[in-house]
Amino acid sequence: MLLIRAHELGCVMTDAQSIDKSLLNDELIEINNKKKKTDEEKAILEPYWNKSLSVGAKTHIKKLAREYVYGFKDSVSSKYMEKGILVEDDSIALYNNVFKTDYVKNTERKTNKWLTGECDVDAPDKIVDVKSSWSLSTFPCVSEDAVDKLYEWQGRAYMMLWNKDLFENAFCMVNTPEHLIKYEPIDQHIVDGIDEKMRVTVVQYERDLDIEENIKVKVTACQNYFNEMLDKIANDHNH
What we know:
Number of helices: 9
Helix content: 40-55%
Structural class: alpha/beta
Number of strands: 7
Strand order of the largest sheet: 4-5-6-7
Distance between the termini: 26 Å
Number of domains: 2
Shape: globular
Radius of gyration: 21 Å
CATH class of the largest domain: Alpha Beta
CATH topology of the largest domain: Lambda Exonuclease, Chain A
């Protein structure tokens, strides 16, 4: 069964531009085709909007189906991602110094019927995910610049998996490994001289059970579409 990884949840939770017609009977199609709908009619159609997948969601699920059938995992690599991996412990240490905590890197993966994920920090009262900024020019120095819908969905997946009421996205700016800096200005990457408090920007999200119900509905639709794609791939190659 397909499980959506926490960091991929935002790829499938986007709103569809139209209701999937395969979900509707003749009566519902007639309602859906009306240019002006009553509030009651809109309420009737709402569950079918939730079950419909956007074009982007379908594209992502097709990608996962292709990887599953052909036995490979498409990998994306960049200097930004490489830094994030290399300095993860440094960023957690910076967070601990600023907030006087002693958190350690989580190594447990959790899974339910819809999602799977491995958060950075499983704190007693929240989940903390650490994002290591590439440079001072990309570091969000105010919280409003740290808001990111994909990261929010990732956090909502973690709150659901770990049964926690709070998710915290902590953007940390620590030294970039020298071999990654290359020709960029060194003063944007070596930041030990800057006050530690100025190098952590935090955004928090509270758990929402209604949103989690929508996640269940949408991911179930993804699972059904994934199975459809597996059948289609098999049928299209039944030479």
